[in-house]
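Appendix B, record 7
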Amino acid sequence: METALHQLVVRVEKALDQQEIALGVFLDIEGVFDNTSYDSMCSALTRHGVDQTIVGWIRATLEVRLAAEALGSVSRSVVVSRGCPQGGFLSPLLRCLVVNELLVRLNEGGVYAQGYADDMSSSGGKIP
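Structure tokens (predicted):
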């Protein structure tokens, strides 16, 4: 079985062998886990057919999170206003659902695009 990266390399090599123009783009969205809006996550869940009761539960879970810090006797906590919770399965799942829309739009526009964990790559050109 070919890995996703290998599939991309094969496409670029094929384009080069056929003397076509090949363009590969690797994109790492900095801070994607910390900066994704709750609305975009919940919209992505809805687009992927998740029941609205579950979407509401996930939104409630996201919106009531606190971030706390302490240094010596001084402590501070704030309500988190965006981003995915870290350390569980929900964070990468929500991020993948949000980024999937970009990948779908690129592929529908004739650009072969794939996602890798928290990174993406795409290639353009006349590649069947």
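Remarks on this record: The helical segments are 4-17, 32-35, 38-47, 52-63, 90-108. The CA atoms of residues 24 and 101 lie 19 Å apart.
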